[in-house]
Amino acid sequence: MKSELVLPAPAKLNLFLHITGRRPDGYHALQTLFQFLDYGDELGFTLQDSLELECNLPELVSDDNLILKAARLLQQETGTQQGARIRLDKRLPMGGGVGGGSSDAATALLGLNVLWGLQLPEERLAELGLQLGADVPVFVRGSAAFAEGVGEILTSAHPPECWYLVLVPDCHVNTVKMYAHRDLTRDTPTIKVCAALETYEEQRRQNLLHNDFEPLVRRLYPEVETCIQLLDNARNSSIGQAMMSGSGACVFAPFASREQAEAAMATIGSDVQSFIARGVNTSPLHSTLHNLQAAHQLEACTT
Ligand SMILES: C[C@@](CO)(OP(=O)(O)O)[C@H](O)COP(=O)(O)OP(=O)(O)OC[C@H]1O[C@@H](n2ccc(N)nc2=O)[C@H](O)[C@@H]1O
Ligand SMILES: Nc1ncnc2c1ncn2[C@@H]1O[C@H](COP(=O)(O)OP(=O)(O)O)[C@@H](O)[C@H]1O
Fold first, then answer.
1. How far is the CA of 173 from the centre of ligand 1 (A)?
2. Which of 58, 82, 258, 270 is the most buried (most CB within 10 A)?
3. 185 pLDDT more than 90
């Protein structure tokens, strides 16, 4: 029997997010800085004839799941008749602005590309990923990046790999509704790539560290407002401001060490769901694939 190929689907944070316009097709033009977290979902892939998804949250098993959509897209693209049993261990908050669904889709694209021996180049996988969601390409590429377009034009970036305390407000923010909201700021001036790649201090000096969804989401979702205030009060030792990721609801603050993030977490207490993770500029998905390849452990899972 083949072994299971086990791969992470990490979370992302938007360290800033500017909405710079709206395209004729309704999608929004963005400028955002993505960094990965060493925390996320886990997917397991085992070769079999049919395609099957199992999950610790059974309500997530449906034809709409981005993992199954990614698998079908790969089958269509390559004509492969192979299937897989895919196990999803869901840990990331859903509709949390940390990209769980998009990351699962990217891990499915890269994992099945290996499992099925398809050898599609990463560039093509990123193009396929964009058909599934605007945030999928950055997870396929696996480098922290300044993103433009709808999030698919990527320039590698190297923000500090600090620790983050992430609070998970007890609400789900609907991304589509937030993008469509009439009060959303859509006219933030565009910045040059070089400004986006500056140091954190310089980004702060240039007033780049804001998320254009945040004022709207704070107004509409009191749970998010409360969490930002909690983080602001608890972050004495934080090296930066509390901010929201993506279209929400998660909010985060950066710290120089895990201990400092833990101290802030302790002052907030357990009424609010939270986690601590390190920001990483290479996706844990890519590090894991690289390590498995170096240890010649991929052959045990593939055709
Ligand atoms: C806001 C962001 C920031 O990273 O993240 P999340 O909060 O979802 O994590 C992303 O732009 C979310 O990207 P993603 O969740 O992949 O969006 P998609 O599935 O492609 O699109 C869902 C819907 O959001 C709107 N949309 C999405 C992306 C974009 N640049 N402009 C848009 O207007 C469109 O109405 C689209 O139909
Ligand atoms: N594998 C998946 N994991 C999570 N959500 C998924 C998945 N596939 C499809 N979805 C749908 O996408 C929605 C938002 O996805 P998610 O990535 O968790 O949000 P966000 O991008 O805000 O972090 C969910 O509410 C769910 O309906």
1. 12
2. 82
3. yes
